[in-house]
Write a structure and sequence with these properties.
Elements lengths: L1 H12 L5 H11 L1 H24 L8 H12 L4 H13 L7 H12 L4 H13 L7 H13 L6 H16 L2 H22 L1
Length: 194
């Protein structure tokens, strides 16, 4: 009987035109509720967008609809969604192929420390897509990706393989310049955390 009364009270609080006002009062009192709902929505949008982009779990591919869901998640600064939007631009999936736009989306996610975006950004610099080819910057992005990956993970292995490939193509002076760039970025991150 108590549960029926409780549910009735909840229904009353969130019913009718007062719903939005009551919800705002609850969110003001318990802000973690609002952020948890936003995170849940962002994760759901990303999952739906990813499924539509790649056609997984029996979902038919739809680039246009995937873009809507991924942009919704990316608007919440969700790095995996930003990375997939970058991938869409890099490949021209559902959007006009545009390396500069891919670079911008990858950079947004990479600056948050997302390893897959850092690898993709390194690839853009290594291959000269959307930017001038710059092996020093590519090396630095791969090293950041490896540092942001769990040992043995796919991202760690991908970044390590790319670094090994670049080591054979770069001069010792270029490798030293890349290591200085990595140290500068680490110092900037430490300063910004304070």
């Amino acid at each position: 009987m108590k549960w029926v009364l409780f549910l009735g009270l909840l229904g009353f609080l969130f019913a009718g035109s007062a719903h939005a006002e009551n919800r705002q009062r609850v969110f003001a009192t318990y802000p973690q509720t609002a952020s948890a709902l936003t995170l849940r929505r962002t994760s759901a949008d990303f999952a739906e967008g990813r499924a539509l982009l790649f056609g997984v779990d029996g979902v038919p591919r739809s680039f246009a609809t995937a873009s809507v869901y991924l942009r919704s998640a990316a608007a919440q600064h969700y790095a995996p969604a930003q990375t997939l939007i970058g991938l869409m631009y890099a490949k021209g999936d559902g959007v006009m192929q545009d390396d500069r736009m891919a670079l911008q989306w990858y950079r947004l996610a990479a600056q948050q420390g997302y390893a897959r975006a850092q690898i993709n950004l390194g690839d853009m610099y290594a291959e000269g897509h959307g930017v001038s080819s710059d092996l020093v910057r590519a090396y630095a992005w791969y090293a950041n990706a490896r540092a942001n990956s769990m040992l043995g993970s796919l991202s760690y292995r991908d970044a390590s393989g790319r670094i090994a490939n670049l080591n054979s193509r770069m001069t010792p002076a270029q490798i030293s310049a890349a290591q200085r760039l990595i140290a500068e970025r680490q110092a900037e991150r430490q300063t910004s955390k304070r």
